[in-house]
Specification:
Blueprint: H1 5-13, H2 19-30, E1 39-42, H3 44-53, E2 64-68, H4 96-103, E3 107-112, H5 148-155, E4 161-166, H6 172-178, E5 181-184, E6 204-209, H7 212-223, E7 238-242, H8 252-267, E8 271-275, H9 283-286, H10 292-308, H11 314-321, H12 328-349, E9 354-358, H13 367-370, H14 377-396, E10 400-405, E11 415-420, H15 425-438
Parallel strand pairs: 2-3, 2-4, 7-8, 7-9
Antiparallel strand pairs: 1-3, 4-6, 5-6, 5-10, 9-11, 10-11
């Protein structure tokens, strides 16, 4: 894997490399077979221009980042992985997240492929093809979604930061399956202006990187805030592992990797307790009317579905249309139930600095098993539910979480998720920095 942002920026400061050279490496990776279907549009002229204009003193120093197809880029339509918006009016300005990365010296490499309208954790796209996970050259495996192309752009070495969004795990799922890092911050910390919404309640603008230290840099830029992570050892933190839900039905590879990871962290001094979180059992009842994503997506899509429904991915349209049946009182009840659930969860989490869980319970299945086609719909929705199960808890919690790789060199990628409630971002990042060193 190509060196991370920090190592590359040090090379720029030492003049052992330069932004133009690094950009050519990024552009070559972006059009290589490894990135097939990862980008819906590359921007080589603009990327070279931005790289040349940046300085080594800037946080991103002219290095490449990619932007998920749901972010506004001035002068371009924002298709969000679909074909029904391909000819929509061009955006008048960059999304705030894109603008902040550019202002920090980032060079925008292009728009990355995604699950249509961000409504799936699998990463399959029938319109633009599905980018293959790079972890297994022998078997094309799913990249995870919905930020599928963003993950592959980072894992392939094309981009140092893959800008995306996370509504139920759309940053952490592809990070886990591709063996990279994905940080979902507390949603309110990063403006979503200029990002096409899925669920305005749950959406978080965030990014994937090749290291935790790069995740800190990306978050500081996107949130326009300084992270106070400190350098305390693992022994300084009180950590917990949740016994219920998060460890149910783990794939054997994931189970072994997670158990081994806990052992290595303990050997490095971590104090880890096992606990139960009873409120997790209430989530099916709370979401019985459908949850936030379908109803909020339907509110945005209903007129577009009437005009262009035939052009949607049928699996996406099916999930959005479910939102049409939720009644106003059910939506209001859902808001209140979530608020009460968060309060109960925060009380149970308050004694701990961070929680540890597998990011997802399975490794990446083959694309062929979930590719578009009615005969594979059952398997697609089964896999989608498994991928979303663990990370979506943190979105419901309005919390923050990071996924970092914890697999052995001969295993498919497995993610360790470090998480907590809202505004515990700095503690989560601090623990993740120490965990990364220990692993």
């Amino acid at each position: 894997m190509r060196p991370d942002l920090h190592a590359t920026r040090l090379a720029l400061l030492a003049t052992t490399s330069d932004a133009r050279t690094e950009m050519e490496h990024s552009l070559a990776a972006a059009v290589s077979p490894a990135c097939a279907h990862a980008f819906t549009r590359t921007m080589p002229d603009e990327a070279r221009r931005d790289a040349a204009a940046a300085t080594a003193a800037q946080p991103l120093a002219g290095l490449a980042f990619s932007a998920k197809d749901l972010f506004d880029i001035a002068g371009q339509p924002t298709p969000a992985g679909s074909v029904v918006l391909a000819h929509a009016p061009a955006a008048r300005a960059d999304a705030i997240a894109v603008a902040r990365l550019r202002a920090a010296g980032g060079a925008l490499l292009g728009r990355t492929n995604m699950t249509e309208f961000a409504f799936s954790g699998v990463g399959v796209n029938p319109h633009h093809g599905t980018p293959a996970n790079l972890a297994d050259p022998a078997t094309p495996r799913i990249p995870g979604g919905s930020s599928s192309g963003a993950a592959v752009s980072v894992a392939s070495g094309a981009a140092f930061i893959g800008l995306g969004s996370d509504t139920g795990g759309s940053i952490r799922i592809p990070a886990a399956l591709n063996g990279i890092v994905g940080f979902k911050s507390t949603a309110r910390l990063v403006p979503a202006q200029g990002a096409l919404p899925l669920s305005t309640t749950l959406d978080t603008v965030c990014a994937m990187t090749r290291s935790v230290r790069d995740a800190v840099t990306a978050h500081q830029i996107l949130a326009a805030r300084r992270v106070t992570a400190g350098a305390a050892p693992l022994a300084a933190y009180r950590l917990a592992v949740c016994r219920n839900l998060f460890q149910d039905g783990l794939d054997p590879v994931v189970a072994r990797a997670f158990e081994r990871t806990l052992g290595r962290l303990a050997a490095a001094g971590a104090r880890i307790e096992e606990i139960d979180l009873p409120p997790l059992a209430d989530l099916p009842t709370i979401n019985a009317s459908g949850g936030f994503s379908p109803v909020e997506a339907y509110a945005w899509h209903r007129l577009l579905l009437e005009r262009s429904g035939a052009g949607y991915d049928p699996r996406v349209a099916q999930r959005i249309i479910k939102g049409a049946t939720m009644r106003a009182h059910e939506y209001i009840d859902l808001i209140h139930a979530r608020r009460s659930w968060i309060e109960r969860m925060e009380q149970l989490l308050s004694p701990f600095d961070a929680m540890l869980s597998p990011t997802v319970p399975i490794t990446a299945p083959a694309i062929a098993d979930v590719a578009p086609g009615e005969e594979r719909d059952d398997e697609f929705f089964r896999v989608n539910a498994l991928l979303l199960r663990n990370p979506s808890v943190i979105n419901m919690l309005d919390g923050c979480a990071i996924s970092l790789p914890c697999q052995a060199t001969d295993e498919l990628p497995v993610g360790l998720m470090v998480w907590h409630a809202a505004l515990h971002d700095d503690a989560v990042l601090a623990v993740a920095l120490q965990a990364e060193r220990a692993l």
